[in-house]
Amino acid sequence: MDIDKCSIIELPKISDPRGNLTFVEGSNHIPFDIRRVYYLYDVPGGAERGGHAHKALHQLIIAMSGSFDVVVNDGNKKKRIHLNRSYNGLYVCPMIWRELDNFSSGSVLMVLASNVYDEEDYYRDYNDYLSARGRQI
Ligand code: TYD
């Protein structure tokens, strides 16, 4: 699971002068079934979130409003992705360290996740994560 697997998925968009509509079907538009949705909002300027990896969780991260950056890192390579379109989602596969920053004022970040919350699924220590990946610390 390396960062080349983390890519933008362009979701269906029904353009309409009354307002655009986007939808997501689990295992159709994204490579997993959706078992949980959560969102970040009221993020203060300069805040940084994330700073962890998941052992088995698949996620799609969407900027529902405003913009922010996601830095994905596989312990070998990293890339910074700017999200600012609500019809785009960043797919993050398991075993990827992610950090979120550069939130615009009023931004809302939504995550579609393949499983319910489980603290046992997290690596919260970067050195533990690197060890699990067999990388040099
Ligand atoms: P965390 O995943 O560390 O947030 P972020 O990656 O956005 O910085 O979660 C922050 C806290 O919220 C942590 O105490 C766990 C709790 N939490 C839940 O209880 N359920 C959830 O679905 C999520 C995502 C977090």
Describe the 3D structure.
This protein has 137 residues and is mainly beta. 5% of the residues lie in helices and 40% in strands. The protein has a five-stranded antiparallel β-sheet with strand order 1-9-6-11-4, with no helix packed on it. The longest helix is centred in the C-terminal third of the chain and has 7 residues, at 126-132. Thymidine-5'-diphosphate is lined by residues 36, 38, 40, 49-50, 52, 117.
List keywords for this structure.
single chain; 137 residues; mainly beta
Rg estimate, integer Å: 15 Å
Number of E-state strands: 12
Spatial separation of the terminal alpha carbons: 19 Å
Task: Give me the side-by-side strand order of the main sheet.
Answer: 1-9-6-11-4
Low-confidence segments: none
- Alpha plus pi helix count: 1
Q: Topology as H/E string? A: EEEEEEEEEEEEH
Helix content: under 10%
Structural class given helices, strands, pairing? mainly beta
Small-molecule binders: thymidine-5'-diphosphate
Quote the beta fraction.
Answer: 35-45%
Query: Roughly what is the average pLDDT, rounded to an integer?
Result: 97
Specify the overall morphology. globular
